[in-house]
Design brief:
heterodimer; A: about 130 residues; alpha/beta; 5 helices; 5 strands; B: about 750 residues; alpha+beta; five-stranded antiparallel sheet; 18 helices; about 60% helix
Chain lengths: ~130, ~750
Amino acid sequence: MIAGAGPRVLIVDDDPGIRRTLHILLSREGYQVAQARDGVEALRLWRDHGGDLVITDLHMPEKNGIETIVELLSHSPGMRIIAMSGGGQTKRLDLLSNASMLGAVLTIEKPFTLNEMMGLVRQAFKIED
Amino acid sequence: MTHTTLPVPDNSLSFPLPRLPPPSRHRLSINLGFALATLLTTWTGWYSYRESIESRESSQWVAHTYEVLGSLSLVISSLQEAETGQRGYIISGKEEYLGPYYHSATRLAGQLGQLRSLTADHPVQRQRVDVVSGMAARRLALLNRGIEVRRTRGRDAALAMILAGQGKALMDSARSALSDMQAIERSFLRERSATSGILARRNEHTIMLGTGLGLLLLATSALLANWEILARLAAESGLRRANEELEARVDLRTQELQIKIEERALIEVELRAGKDFLRKVVDTNPQLIFIKDWDGRFVLANLPVAELYGTTVGALEGKSDGDFNPNAAEVESFLRADQEVMQSGRRLDVPEESVTDRRSGVTRWFQTVKVPLTSPDGRGRQVLGVSTEITQRRHAEEQLRRTRDELQALVEAAPVAIVSVDPQGRVVNWYGGAKAMFGWSAEEAVGRPLLNVPPDKQEEHRTLRARVLQGKSFTGFDTRRIRKDGTPVEVSLSTAPLHDRGGNVVGIIGVYQDISERRLLAEQRVAREARDTLTHMIVHDLRSPLTGLQGYLDLLRLAVSAGSNDEALGFARDAHGVAGHLKEMISQVLDVSRLESGDMPLSREDTNLVELLSSAVASLGPPPNAIDVVYETAGQPVVIACDRDVMTRVLANLVGNAFKFAPRRGEVRIGLEASRGMVRVTVADNGPGVDPEHRKVIFEKFAQAPLGRAGKGRSTGLGLTFCKLAIEAHGGKIGVGNCDGGGARFWVELPGMEAANPIR
């Protein structure tokens, strides 16, 4: 899955359209991209291969985004995370803000353009840099 | 005043006395026999007496003859002795020979005198006696001369003289005369002896005959008498025995009587004790007990009666209520009731009557039973009354009635329906609130099973009733009932069992609260919340595909800018696909909404479900995660009338759901079976399955969200809700269970074709 030599990005979403478009976008930008359908698969991939950025949806089957984020952060504190939310769900955003205290979590609300996402990815690495 | 007397036992003898035999018919014979015997004996005696007199005379004559003969002999012998003595003297000369001579000569005179008297009755013999006497005198004179001669002239002279023979001749003559006399006497003797013998014989015969006859008669009579006596003795003996027996019986009876008398004395003591005891019991009894006569006078009254009237038991006797009770109306009513009982002879129950307490003037209440009695002498009518005071009970009842009225008012006024039923479920009480709530009046509802239970709630109703009858009450059970006009009413039902004193459940009280309004409000609230949630979720759920669509469109733009047509064409196709899915999601939301509001007409047409299943699965694209799809259908067409489009979406939903939960390389089994009038479709996966608690709610709107297991992406979370509504719109049912080896198995049951057009 992971190809190229750039920073490694893990995309986690159960919507295949989002996974596929982000994959194409980030691959073109030189990132090594991996994708997972849900949190369980994401954690497995992260443990096995590690990564520099996780872009995850918050609403997924099996293991939702918040749980996934909390687990990733406990595994690698301070890691870069971009959380995508459906918006309009204040409760979940509260949870997300709680989660962001654990690390540098950037959020973006669906729907977004590829440019918006690309800007956020760059911001994540820029902050890191 | 009456004297009670004990019954006197019957002392009359109960067995017959033996009777004396009746006067015998032998009696006359016996008497006659005895009379004849007496007569005969008398006659025989008299006759033999007469005969014996005759015989004695005869014998006397014989004896006389013998005496005469003896005297004759004595004369002869005296003559001879005198001769012998004289000759002895002559021969011997001795004087001593003269003694016999003198003695005989002396005797001879006497003997001749006797002979003379003996023969006095016979003149001939008497003459001869005289002759003999002369001869004897001469002989004696001759003999005396011989003696003289001897003396004077000696023996020879004397002998010579003897030899002369004069003496001898004389002697012979005398002897001859005496012999004649003897001969005559002897003939007399023969004659007389014969007469005497005849007499004796006749006498003997007479005696024998008389005596014999007499004896015979006597014997006969005696025999008869003996029989008679024996009979009498036997009778007497019987009589005696009877008498003894009688005496024994009398003794026994006397003893028995004695014992009875003692017993009676004992009984009387006991009776008295019993009477005293009864009196005590009667007096101790808190009830009023009394006996009155026709005129209402007390024959008997116990202490409580006396206390009620402020007097003594003794003072009550002979008096009537009027003497003590100032309330004339009461007195009058008592007498009327008493006389009614005495008249009719039937028991009378007076459930409630008042008696005015003489001292306090307070009215006391009694429940009285009056029964007719006959006075001890059997002539008069009486009435026995037993009155139980119910004043307190009456107060309590009054209190209870008030409380009940209050409760009744409360129950009637309450905005709830209160109903009680018996254990069989028949309505006992149907209070006002129930009429207001359900429409039936108490008259219509009471005595019948509950009318407000709709047919589909009967089973639930039975179950609930059984639970309450077991003593388990419940509160706030929400259910549905119907009104008299058939309209439903949502109620909250609370029940409690009613117990009798023994703790047995004898009924159920149920309180219905109309929660239609509450339910409506709650439903409205839920609907509002659901709408909000739905809005949020739709917004959220549409964002992901919208983001995907936007991404594809961005890539399309980039590809077009880069002049890469093939790439652009691919992204355009992808964008189109996502847009199609978005449209499907929106349709689903709209369909659910329309199905719920009944605003979605189904266009039914005969459809082969086998084909429909295939196309529905195909619409999902190739199964993800290398999932194996297994068809369990007979392969024959199964045709039902359904809305082809809606049914396709239902099946696609179920299969898509299964794909989602089946593991990688898992299995989804699709079954289709048709039985009479019923088609059943099953979709099973070998995923984690559905918890029993979730099986019901899984078909509710947005059930997946709280369950946290349904995904998003291509789903609105309304998929199963849509399926349920769509299947129900087709008159079918939908449900879920777990497979034997785990994994969920969704099933759909649809009514098949009518019998005229069976499933092909």
